[in-house]
Amino acid sequence: MIREQIFDIINNQIRDNNPPETKQTFDRLLKQGFDDFETRQLIAQCLAIELFNVMKHGRPYNNERYIKNLLALPKEPLE
User: Which helix (H) or strand (E) holds 24?
Assistant: First the structure.
């Protein structure tokens, strides 16, 4: 299932601290009271935007936008 694959990417980003904003956002959202699953779901929204743009539109991965969306969570990410 796609969600598990996206969660695997998030787990790898947290483990590797790359980008560091993923782990920072994960920790921040947990401190704000979101549970583990909700936190991963929020981060997954940001990642899904990037994957969609790569797959659907053939655009390069936009790390700057990804980080900007992570930092704005829990606000819904911008496409």
Answer: helix 20-31
